[in-house]
Write a structure and sequence with these properties.
With 246 residues, this protein is an alpha/beta fold. Helix content is 53%, strand content 13%. It has helices at residues 3-40, 58-71, 81-86, 88-96, 116-134, 150-155, 169-172, 175-185, 199-215, 222-228; strands spanning 46-55, 76-79, 100-103, 160-161, 165-166, 191-195, 217-220, 238-239. Strands 1, 2, 3, 5, 6 and 7 form a six-stranded parallel beta sheet that branches. α2 (58-71) runs parallel beside α9 (199-215). The N and C termini lie far apart (78 Å). The model is unreliable at 31-40 (pLDDT under 50). The structure holds nickel (II) ion.
């Protein structure tokens, strides 16, 4: 190898080394950029609470719990006392998997127009049955049909949680119609009403979860929504949504 060949070889080595350095820098830089985009996507578009009334039911509620677990999403279930007595294992599963449990009366009856004694009988029996399963907790109340009067506000002994988005899932029993209501109406601070009685509601609920997550919303329990807003729920007060204070 003469001097000329040697300097060519040296030059080639430099070129290869430079190319390697540039590509390594590119890999590191593009990786960082990707990470930066992920971080930039972190602030959520808003928080939404999905709520399910009238359960628990062995088939549909379990299917819903499976789907929520796969997606890592927590929801709120307002339970009917006599259903709780029939399906205690489903209630324990809800509790174990981090969902919020609330009251929806013992016999699914409208509380509006009832006396103090009648209200307390409906709520206390449900409360005690739930406490025997999941321990001494306070439960929020979803009044059947959203009917509230002054006597109920006075004797509920629980925050009264209504809703801001009504999917009317029990009426349409149509997956597309339910998903359309949610995607068109739901936004930050909304409380969405659904029922885990019907297979169509379960399919629609999980489709809604996927859509809302894609849009950048976080799905939380009603309790968590209060905490995120820095608000403590008051017994006897009616809430239908928890938007961020301007
Ligand atoms: Ni109901």
């Amino acid at each position: 190898m003469n001097g000329k060949q040697r300097s060519r070889l040296l030059w080639a080595a430099w070129v290869v080394a430079f190319a390697l350095a540039v590509s390594a820098a590119w890999v590191i830089w593009s990786g960082e950029e990707e990470a930066a985009q992920t971080t930039a996507a972190l602030p959520p578009k808003g928080y939404i609470a999905l709520t399910f009334d009238d359960g628990p039911w062995p088939k549909t509620t379990e299917a819903l719990l499976d789907g929520l677990a796969q997606r890592g999403v927590k929801a709120t279930f307002f339970l009917v006392g006599e259903q709780v007595a029939d399906h205690p294992d489903t209630v324990k599963r809800m509790e174990d998997e981090g969902h919020q449990i609330g009251l929806h009366t013992w016999h699914h009856v409208p509380l509006k127009g009832m006396t103090r004694e009648e209200i307390c009988a409906q709520l206390n029996k449900t409360r005690q049955t739930l406490q025997a399963l999941v321990g001494p907790e306070d439960f929020m109340l979803r009044p059947p049909y959203g009917f509230v009067d002054e006597t109920l506000e006075h004797w509920a002994q629980a925050p009264i949680i209504c809703w801001s988005v009504d999917t009317e899932d029990w009426k349409s029993k149509n997956v597309d119609a339910i998903v359309q209501v949610v995607t068109q109406q739901a936004g930050d601070g909304d409380i969405i009403l659904m029922h885990d009685i019907f297979e169509t509601s379960v399919t629609a609920a999980l489709t809604c979860v996927d859509r809302l997550l894609e849009e950048g919303y976080y799905l939380v329990t009603v309790e968590d929504l209060f905490a995120l807003r820095g608000e403590s729920p008051q017994a006897g007060q009616v809430y239908s949504s928890l938007p961020e204070e301007p």
